[in-house]
Amino acid sequence: MEGNEAVSDRNIFEYSYFPGCSVITTAWESNQSLMQLCQTLGLNLVELEDWNCCGSSSAFTIDPELGFNLSARNLSMADPQRPLLVMCPRCLHYLRKVHQVIRQDKTVRKAQERRWRRPLSPDLEIIHFLEVVVKLEPRSWKQGSLNGLKFMPYFGCTLFRRPALRRERYYQGEIDKVLAALGAVPVTQGLTTHCCGSFLSVVRPQMVSRMVNRIIQSAQMAGAECLVTVCALCQLNLEIRCTLENKLPVFHFSEILALGLGAKDYESWFARHLVDPRPLLWERGLIK
């Protein structure tokens, strides 16, 4: 693949991979761009066999035990010899939260091992894709490939802070640094960590539209041309619930990073967006 020579000759690093429900359905383009990006970066993702929903907000709210068991089952299938990579911040939160209990409470761990008839490693490393990218030292990559694209990094509330996991590192602000290393211009004066409404989008769409409009307007007022997020649900809400006349494109982090590193097979990703990003990218000379 043509692209960034600084990352093309890296050794292959292997990770277990938990896609999560949103990333392989409504955010299919996020998963596809991630696959292409990992090839460029020399990352081999081994998808968990027969994985299931992490429990998300619904199961943990209605039946916490069920939600716990769902996440624990996924953890039981992860090879402890390699890190478990997760793309969705919500999945990351629940998998880490359950793993924290399993690590600290031997009784719970033994009960889950009996339930699933598999061992659960208290030493399993669970990481977000953004953490992997940061460790690859993006400052050494080819500069200028994103041609000054002005973006607002949107972290949302889940990746930005989790009180129960406050000792875990979440790499706030790293979207800015990674994409700036490739020549994009971060605009950070907007509402980068305000909640997009999350699952309230289903039952209170009008309320979520007000929340989303405030976020988009803050980006526009700060001079951003687009938003970049690492959360599939945030990306969906920011597009589908925006009722402003002038909307902004909202990219998945994996899409814009893959593009910056020389991806060519991007048409199927951007065609799925509700707010077409191609005119902006064409104007910036990023696509043909």
UniProtKB/TrEMBL annotation:
Q: Pfam families from the xrefs? A: CCG
Which UniProt keywords are given for this protein, alphabetically ordered?
Answer: Oxidoreductase
Q: Would I find Oxidoreductase among this entry's keywords?
A: yes
Q: Which InterPro entries match?
A: Cys_rich_dom (IPR004017), HdrB/HdrD_reductase (IPR051278)
Keyword Oxidoreductase among record annotations: yes
Q: Which residues form the Cysteine-rich domain?
A: 16-95, 156-238
Q: What protein am I looking at?
A: Cysteine-rich domain-containing protein
The species is Desulfobacca acetoxidans
